[in-house]
Specification:
Shape: globular
Number of domains: 1
CATH topology: Rossmann fold
Structural class: alpha/beta
Order of helices and strands: EHEHHEHEHEE
CATH architecture: 3-Layer(aba) Sandwich
Number of helices: 5
Length: 116
């Protein structure tokens, strides 16, 4: 599965996903400073899930009704980097098929998936 991670996603999460054989485009490496609509559009082209810690993507998807192949909002403040990486990797491995064309929120112990 193709994933796009914006700059707000911690590098250890990206590294863990890549180690799990996910194809991850990381905007901190590819195009630092890109604006949110450009990141969302870049994720849509290959039908990739967009991983972010930025709640502004909810605004773009719901209020502005921009197209999305799937957004995964990570709300993991307070967790150690290793714990975040493990949780995100396990969640994406187990639920990526459900996250397509949905807005998902990952928090410790809870996964919410809202189909669009």
């Amino acid at each position: 599965m193709k994933l796009v991670a914006d700059e707000s996603v911690d590098k250890p999460i990206v590294d863990a996903l890549r180690a799990a054989k996910f194809d991850v485009t990381y905007f901190a490496e590819e195009s630092p400073g890109a604006d949110d609509p450009a990141i969302l559009a870049a994720a849509n082209e290959p039908k990739a899930l967009l991983l972010t810690c930025d709640k502004d993507f909810g605004e773009l998807v719901y209020r502005q009704r921009l197209a999305s192949a799937g957004v995964v909002l990570l709300r993991l403040a307070g967790l150690a980097a290793e714990s975040k990486a493990r949780l995100v990797t396990q969640t994406v491995q187990a639920h990526s098929h459900e996250m397509v064309d949905a807005f998902s929120v990952v928090t410790p112990g809870i996964l919410r998936i809202r189909s669009r």
